[in-house]
Amino acid sequence: MRAAPVLDTNLAEPERHVAPVPRITIQAFCESPELAHSVQNAAADRRMARAHVKVSMGGLPAAEEAYRTSATPNVILIEYNGHSNALLEGLDRLAESCDAGTKVVVVGRVNDIILYRELVRRGISDYVVAPLAPLDIVASISGLYGSADAKPVGKIVGVIGAKGGVGASTVAHNIGFAIARDLEIDAVVADLDLAFGTAGLDFNQDPPQGIADAVFSPDRVDAAFVDRLLSKCTDRLSLLAAPATLDREYDISPEAFEPIFDTLRASVPYAILDLPHIWSGWAKRAILGADEIIIVASPDLANLRNAKNMFDLAKTARQNDRAPLYLLNQVGMPKRPEVKTSDFAKALGAEPIASIPFEPQLFGTASNNGQMIAEVSAKHKTAEMFLQIAKSITGRAESKKQKNDLLSPLLTKIRGLRK
């Protein structure tokens, strides 16, 4: 019997979004072991991957002494739990040693607006009140490098298969399509399978340039350059296609995609990474550095093992992020023994966000026509599942239909009164 589609209707809302910190140096001078521990945990956060962080004890006096004869870093974080007058006097002395451009963040215990205004008047970049979680520290430092009138930083969504052939690319493409067409949010699908990528075929596009041009020309990558490489799929969806040729070898460094990701974050609300099923330095960096991770698996033992390994690694490496999302694809394939959904949930400690049924006719037609599922059959349950996943990622969990349903009793009453 063919399995019915299953969708988790209690999808968690997206976590707090904090922009990555640029390549800077940070030194923290702590008074308490608790803050020192939080700063060390913050330094291990994926958003701080490019920053160099050093933690010292001793608070403000230690900072004054450290920079009497040495250059100051980009950011100095100082914990101070004493009297406000002594804090202001110490900061005045520290200012005499600070290089131009150095930003200072003060961590205190008192929520005092008068003290805050006095610190701002002296040029202090931020004042935060302890206790601080690691993500609070990352957010404070990240906020120093984003102007108040800057556009919101976009999100990177990494989609990867637990095993080859599970349909991760198809899932990535359909989620990107739903975000752009149905939710009307600008999005880019980036095909990172340089040798064998299928995004161009799935969207019926054959652009002369694509993501490889950016990978092998990192010095040229900026918003204008990436924009020239994009292929327009719909009004709001663009594609960074893979060359899908074998005329060169794609041995690339772990940092090769970073300029592209930075540019996408700064220029588009959502970038969906279609990641190949490989495990290299750049692939690991890309998936662990994404703002959201979606693992696609089929219901068999190898997929269960691989999905759990990915799930556990991501949870360990990304302690300040929500756990990865995962979904089961190709569920209910005839004559194939399957691992139960409940076994996946028990092993991973979380329910799948969706269980997409095995529909070879539907998916085959879409693939051969260069279309998305919603274009082949707009009212199909699978198309609705992709839309619900897109809503979960973007935080738009309530659909227009649901909103109309809430209004329908009132509208009915009004119509009755008019009669």
Major sheet: arrangement of strands: 1-14-13-12-7-11-8-10-9
Helicity level: 40-55%
Strand content: 15-25%
Number of strands: 14
What structural class should be given to the helix and strand makeup?
Answer: alpha/beta
What's the gyration radius in Å?
Answer: 25 Å
What does this structure look like?
With 419 residues, the protein is α/β, with parallel strands linked by helices. It folds into two domains: 119 residues, Response regulator (Rossmann fold), CATH 3.40.50; 250 residues, P-loop containing nucleotide triphosphate hydrolases (Rossmann fold). The protein contains 17 helices and 14 strands. Strands 1-14-13-12-7-11-8-10-9 form a nine-stranded mixed sheet, with helices on both faces. The chain has a five-stranded parallel sheet with strand order 3-2-4-5-6, with helices on both faces. Helix 1 packs across helix 5. The radius of gyration is 25 Å and the shape is elongated.
